[in-house]
Description:
The complex is a heterodimer.
Chain A: H1 3-16, E1 19-30, E2 33-44, E3 48-52, H2 59-65, E4 76-84, E5 87-88, H3 96-102, E6 103-106, H4 117-127, H5 134-147, H6 151-154, H7 167-180, E7 185-189, H8 197-210, E8 215-219, H9 223-229, E9 232-237, E10 240-246, H10 247-252, H11 257-263
Parallel strand pairs in A: 3-8, 3-9, 6-7, 7-8
Antiparallel strand pairs in A: 1-2, 1-4, 4-5, 9-10
Helix pairs in contact in A: 4-5, 4-7, 5-7, 7-8
Chain B: H1 8-40, H2 44-75, H3 79-115, H4 119-145, H5 148-156, H6 158-178, H7 183-215
Helix pairs in contact in B: 1-2, 1-3, 1-4, 2-3, 3-7, 4-5, 4-6, 4-7, 5-7, 6-7
Amino acid sequence: MTEAATEEALEKKMNTVPLKMVGKDVSVYYGDKRALYDVNLNVRENTVTALIGPSGCGKSTFLRTLNRMNDTIDGCRVTGLITLDGGDIYDPAIDVVELRARVGMVFQKPNPFPKSIYENVSYGPRIHGLARTKAELDQVVEQSLQRAGLWNEVKDRLHESGTGLSGGQQQRLCIARAVAVSPEVILMDEPCSALDPIATAKVEELIHELRANFTIVIVTHSMQQAARVSQRTAMFHLGNLVEENDTDKMFTNPDDQRTQDYIMGRFG
Amino acid sequence: MSSTHIVSIYDEELKYLARRISEMGGTAEQMVGDSVRALVDTDAALAQKVISEDVVLDNAERQINEKAIITIAKRQPMAADLREIMGAIRIAAELERVGDLGKNTAKRVIAVQSSGMPRKLARGLEHLAELALMQLKEVLDVYASRNIEKAKEIRERDDEIDAIYTSLFRELLTYMMEDPRNITPCTHLLFCAKNIERIGDHATNIAETIFYMATGAQPEGERPKDDNTTSVGAVQE
């Protein structure tokens, strides 16, 4: 097969991956200030989508619209349409707590609850009624920690405080906590920016494994990380979606000059 | 490039690679020109100079590779920068090969010298070398200018060299058939002609690399070929 044909086949394959979330003409205002301008961006199932762009470009804002984290900010207004499996997530009938169980989130700084490792992971499944017995709950905790690649490191000290873990372990604990409620989509807002390279590599390996079962959207300032972990990349600039492309294309030969300048570290 | 890097020393590193490639190109050009001159004029001293110059290109290629690898490790280049650095590595290798071919031609000068060379053959070789050198010179100009149209043109012109090479090949065979004493010098000349023809191929490779560096895409279509020596002398049914 020629290179062009391979590329075409890949693109075709990517185009047949079902859409998990759809953003249509999404605009976000913080009071009078407009932070996002009519963004049209789709998130494909079992795909890692990376959002990149300079600080203040709107990538985190967009990420937060996907599970309505912006609701908690005073004066924040979202227009346009965002759907999850075709259902409008801004529909007034939607239960936001339930939405956030389906679309989980991991933050920049590891933020475990000041409770035991076990309680950190079991809290979500318990309040969402995902486990009926102690045995079931134990199983969810173990499975989640396994999935987060943390089980072997913490299985003997499940009842010690989560805040006593190292930074990298704490972040994987937060991922285990997010995974525990069996979400469909996991949003990650710079999950590795506070971690050392080894902890970062572990989280990246984890993202790779999680992709089989979850849809992942990750905001990152590291171009290399976006290139390593994602299949699709979206570039934001000044509140606009500048380019969305296959990651391989994005980092070798992007279509947009602004993407080119940004990823190469050039003056625009 | 329309813009410069925020980290200015990164620009310096890329400029260093470009400058070293241009220098290599100049040396390779000189070597090839001298080697053909030495062959045609049976000038053993000039041939010796070419042979001793090859080490310059070998060293330059090694230095370019080392610098490129350090730059990749340090800057983790993306997009056009990454293509620029990979292109430098590839072009340095092509130019090093061009130098080797010039050196090989120069080495044969002494062998051909003893038996003398028919004037007509020398003319043919000179013409072949002129074309190959022009290809090389132009492709080095394109490396500096990044003129994509010109790169495509160079790529499409390689068949001229192939055609002349094929006719030289036939001629040399004729000489060998005429008189077995011609076999030794003509075999050497055949290798020399092949060397020069290969230089055209390397120039074409460089043109393709430059096209990729500038556009991020491979040039479309097969490159034209007119090297028919593989079937010269085949029994006609």
